[in-house]
What we know:
Elements: E1 16-18, E2 21-23, H1 25-32, H2 40-48, H3 50-56, H4 59-71, E3 73-74, H5 76-83, H6 87-99, E4 103-107, E5 113-117
Antiparallel strand pairs: 1-2, 3-5, 4-5
This protein binds zinc ion (ZN).
Zinc ion binds near residues 3, 8, 23, 24 and 27.
Amino acid sequence: MKCDRCKTECADDELIAYQGQKLCEDCYMDSVSPLKACDPWAVHSAKQSTQTADVQLLPIQKKMLKAIETQKAVLPELLAELLDITPRELQRNFAILRHMELLRGFKGEDGKVYWTLFES
Length: 120
Ligand SMILES: [Zn+2]
């Protein structure tokens, strides 16, 4: 089973039904707790100015953005290796950055999912 939001592979009993979606614990927490990323003001500022958004990002999120900015498109597993964090932590931060419309995923010609800057 995969989480409907971040597509992380999860055990069936780890997924939580929420508003018609099956979410992993992380995405569920993100959905129910008004996290920074879910704050409309944060999303608004992220669109307004990357500088303002920058202040609200965690160091790891800034590193992700920088790495992806440099490489244009990157495979999540390579990024996890590059930044030396667990895939789960990476997915969690990606979910936040995607929510803020800073990053997005897309399927490459090789059928693999890459991450890239939202605006690219
Ligand atoms: Zn998830």
